[in-house]
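Section 4.2 – Deliverable D4.2 (structural model, holo form)

The reporting period included a commitment to supply a predicted holo structure for the target in complex with carboxymethyl coenzyme *A. Inputs used:
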Amino acid sequence: TGYITYDPGFINTGSCMSSICYIDGEKGILRYRGYDIADLVQNCDFIEVAYLLVKGVLPTLDERSNYARLLNKHSMLHTDMRNFFRSYPHDAHPMAILASMVASLSAFYPEMEEKDPEDNIDLTVTRLLSKMRTIAAFSYRQSIGYDFVDPRYDYSYCENFLNMMFSSPVLDYHPDPVHVKALNQLLILHADHEQNCSTSAVRLVGSSEANLYASVAAGCCALWGPKHGGANQAVIEMLNKIIKEGLSVKEIVEKAKDKSNTFRLSGFGHRVYKTFDPRARIAKQMCQEVLNVEGMHDSLMEVALELEDIAIHDDYFIERNLYPNIDFYTGIIFHLMRIPQQMFTVLFAMGRLPGWIAHYLEWRHDPYQKIGRPRQIYAGPETRKVIPLSLRT
Ligand code: CMC
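Output (structure tokens):
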């Protein structure tokens, strides 16, 4: 007990045993519950993958339709909660609204605080999966000062989200099937990634036996930062800046290598992957597909390809094993789907939600789990005596 290992960023610390997600960072492999990420993206929709992560198995046809029905049934928000949205400033970042509204679910739907939370956990999980999508769309509507659009029972999970985001009384809006497919695939790509910063936050908060909503709200806050889920927004801002200010891609890469400033290439590098992030490979292919289907030419994509090409052939990036990560191309797909930039990280959160829930549940059922409580190496002053206030200089 007297010996404490110093491991900043927990680079070498395994904080739990988990059977949810497998990553081989050297080979670029990612699997959810044994299924390869490419296989899942190709053959499943987001509901099936959410079911897989939360319940441990892929659903049968009946189980899938029942689950989709259940998610639709719970998709509305309490009226008082809807009113609550209106108190946020119009330019509030949707992530600020999302995190606080998810925490607020524990006030409006307090089953988990009751005597036997185990009885209610299924209901809480379903509510959260369903309502977070509604909260996400409402947070956007509030940020642009538009009325809310209710979820519809005849729409799928992703159709509903797009409809709640973009439907308007002056526009005959129907979710584009290409966008619906892309959204399903993007959410699957984000659905879990073992002990990343936000999932660790969910586990840590959950380890104090805080309820699921509170634990997931902590995950949203952790995800928001530009080194984590906020990177997708930062990538688009970086690419736009290159285009608008006519900057040279080479110069941007040089700036990212220059240690006299703190600038980094957004969407590059990863703690675990020392090769291409397998999710980035799939996202890059999806970008091309969405562009082809829409018959579009996109200058952001052109700059992204040039940036990737220069960086991956540069010694600085090669020596440090820095490759494009998931956020490098997903921002471009969101942009092609006309999702506003401030919503990119919210979509990451919607995708990561089943993973957060699965880890929370795994912790609850793990007999060896303890409250998370890392130690520190004290580096402060030795014992000192307090000088009376009047004598202090
Ligand atoms: N651009 C330039 N240099 C970089 C970059 C980058 N994007 N990423 C890492 N480096 C350098 C860093 O300066 C350091 O150099 P040196 O050894 O000379 O000091 C070396 O590479 C190792 O970096 P690190 O910060 O020690 O690595 P880490 O594992 O602690 O950080 C990271 C991983 C993802 C935070 C980091 O690569 C980064 O800041 N990337 C940009 C932000 C980003 O794209 N984040 C999304 C991550 S993927 C999705 C997710 O998990 O949310």
